[in-house]
Automatic annotation (TrEMBL), chain A:
Keywords for this protein: Membrane, Transmembrane, Transmembrane helix
Annotated organism of origin: Streptomyces malaysiense
Protein's name in the database: Succinate dehydrogenase
Listed transmembrane segments: 32-52, 93-116, 156-176, 182-203, 244-263
From TrEMBL, chain B:
Annotated CDD domains: fer2 (cd00207)
Species name: Streptomyces malaysiense
Stated family: Belongs to the succinate dehydrogenase/fumarate reductase iron-sulfur protein family.
Keyword entries, A-Z: 2Fe-2S, 4Fe-4S, Iron, Iron-sulfur, Metal-binding, Oxidoreductase
Record keyword Metal-binding present: yes
Pathway assignment: Carbohydrate metabolism; tricarboxylic acid cycle
UniProt KW Transport keyword: no
Cofactor(s) needed for function: [2Fe-2S] cluster; [3Fe-4S] cluster; [4Fe-4S] cluster
GO cellular component: plasma membrane
Domain (2Fe-2S ferredoxin-type): residue spans on this chain: 6-93
Superkingdom, taxonomy of origin: Bacteria
GO biological process terms on file: respiratory electron transport chain; tricarboxylic acid cycle
Name recorded for this polypeptide: Succinate dehydrogenase/fumarate reductase iron-sulfur subunit
GO molecular function, one term: oxidoreductase activity
Length: 273, 256
């Protein structure tokens, strides 16, 4: 007599023949869906916002602040920023927003980041949706084939992200000017930019590739005391990589939003001195 | 806090089929799930099969799934559950079941045999090994593993895809490769054994999509993903995907 608990053939995973005959895909009773749903919602919100801002090609400069989405600005039609990070490297043929040129690098860095991979594999691709919750896919090859084998390019994006962080550091230094480009001033935007660059650097340096390059690749720490110390420092940051990933994502969006609000005339930058 | 009667659903069966059966069992203060399973054996189900040994979270025998989460039964306190809650106990769902809560974990021993052992440095005799603590710290973290195989059980690469068991060694054994590759005295490379290449080609490191479930379930708190799997992936990148590192190592080798 069929009891409904016999093995169903031609089904895989936790229902594969030989395994305990339990038809449920999972037996978790906690709110396991909350974390992937929250992650997906957070990432989706950022994607929508950043896509709008990246393609808007407007309101990205309010002296002395330049949006991190548009820095460095490398196209012919960039807004003039005195002493700012603009250089007409691509000429006039570039027809769309200059933000797209530079955003490829931080986007690639985050897209191939070991934390974000976990986040979107779980949140968007349900591979798996949560631990011990069966994934819906028939087959799985992980990161062994194209296109996911390209995740191994993370290290190159890390090198690029270092350069971008350097430019954003320069932008932050420029925020100590006033609207007339005089040095020795500070406004609320300066604090926003300082917070943003601190988070950007913390996230970038906490990267697993960075941890490997500074010392993780060594077999003998005792022969490389300086690199060992650097590895330990990066390791402490790395333990908070997830938190830094989210904080820096929020930080860069807020810095851009701040510039947008100033440039579109919603309010004036409160000046401290 | 006094004792109470708790509701349990325990999977009973074997490879031919089975079902979740309901039980009501007394629970006393301070007890763990394994205590309840033993009481169940003593009072209501004397033929209930369960594997256990130390009751101290050190032997890795009593691995099971409690409310759908891979856990050691001896380290899962009853106080974490609501008294009105029905606690479901099943065998590990990534491995073939033998009977009731006992599974056949031989997959793991087969994979263990596939990892070449520590290669002793030829210039040192046994007893002459000397190393700095900071050089072995990384490997020693992985030596805390009690081989409960909860990480193997929860890893979706094999849990949800039986067909991947042939190609993928699982987090526990990729961690073993990392442990040896990071070991200051392992002479595998000098003997012609490239552990990084084997990690990718023979043990399926590329299947890992670093979703960290192995780390989440590890009862020893080993940071398997951050400290073993990702560093191993980065070592493979050194070897395979980073021409700068490849070039640097070639130049270094030629000049030395």
């Amino acid at each position: 007599m069929a009891t409904g608990t016999e093995h169903r053939h031609n089904v895989g995973g936790v229902r594969a023949p030989g395994r305990a005959a339990i038809t449920a895909a999972h037996l978790r009773t906690d709110r396991w869906w909350l974390a992937p749903a929250g992650t997906a919602a957070g990432l989706l919100a950022f994607v929508v916002y950043s896509t709008w801002r990246a393609f808007a090609n407007a309101d990205y400069y309010a002296s002395p602040y330049v949006s991190p989405f548009y820095s460095p600005c490398l196209a012919h039609d960039c807004q003039s920023m005195r002493g700012g990070p603009n250089a007409d490297l691509l000429g006039s043929w570039w027809g769309i927003s200059p933000a797209v040129i530079i955003l490829v690098f931080p986007l690639g860095f985050r897209l191939t980041c070991y934390y974000y991979r976990k986040a979107y594999y779980r949140g968007f691709w349900a591979s798996p949706p949560a631990c011990a919750v069966a994934e819906p896919h028939r087959g799985y090859t992980g990161e062994t084939r194209f296109p996911l084998i390209l995740q191994n390019l993370h290290r190159y994006f890390f090198y690029a992200a270092l350069l971008v962080a350097g430019v954003l550091t320069y932008d932050t230094a420029l925020t100590f000017r006033d609207a007339h480009h005089q040095w020795g001033h500070m406004g609320l935007g300066t604090l926003v930019f300082l917070a943003n660059i601190a988070l950007i650097w913390s996230y970038t340096l906490s990267c697993h590739s960075c941890r490997h390059i500074v010392g993780g690749q060594l077999k003998h720490f005792s022969r490389h005391p300086v690199r060992y110390r650097a590895w330990r420092f990066v390791g402490r940051l790395n333990a908070r990589h997830m938190q830094l990933a989210w904080a820096s994502l929020l930080g860069v969006a807020l810095a851009d939003l701040y510039v947008y609000l100033l440039a579109s005339g919603v309010f004036d930058d409160p000046r401290f001195f | 806090m006094s004792g109470y009667e708790a509701r349990f659903r325990v999977w009973r069966g074997d490879e031919h089929g089975g079902e979740l059966r309901d039980f009501t069992v007394a629970v006393n203060e301070g007890e763990v799930v394994l205590d309840i399973v033993h009481r169940l054996q003593a009072t209501q189900a004397p033929d209930l099969a369960v594997r256990w040994n130390c009751k101290a979270g050190k032997c890795g025998s009593c691995s099971a799934e409690v409310n759908g989460r891979p856990r050691l039964m001896c380290m899962t306190r009853m106080s974490v559950f609501d008294r009105a809650e029905t606690v479901t106990i099943t065998p590990l769902r990534a491995f073939p079941v033998i009977r009731d809560l006992v599974t056949d974990v031989s997959f793991n021993y087969e994979k263990a045999r596939g990892i070449p052992a520590f290669v002793p440095p030829p210039e040192l005799a046994p007893g002459e090994y000397r190393m700095f603590q900071r050089d072995v710290d990384r490997s020693q973290e992985f030596r805390k593993c009690i081989e409960c195989f909860l990480c193997q059980d929860t890893c979706h690469v094999v849990r949800d895809h039986e067909e991947n068991k042939r190609a993928f060694a699982g987090p526990r054994f990729l961690m073993r490769v990392a442990e040896l590759d990071m070991h200051p005295l392992d002479a595998a490379e000098r003997s012609g054994l490239d552990r990084r290449r084997t990690a990718q080609d023979e043990h399926g490191l590329g299947y890992c999509n670093i979703t960290k479930c192995c780390t989440e379930v590890c009862p020893e708190g080993i940071r398997i993903t951050d400290n073993a799997l990702i560093p191993l992936k980065e070592r493979v990148v050194d070897r395979r995907y980073d021409p700068l590192v490849w070039l640097g190592s070639k130049i270094k080798r030629r000049s030395s």
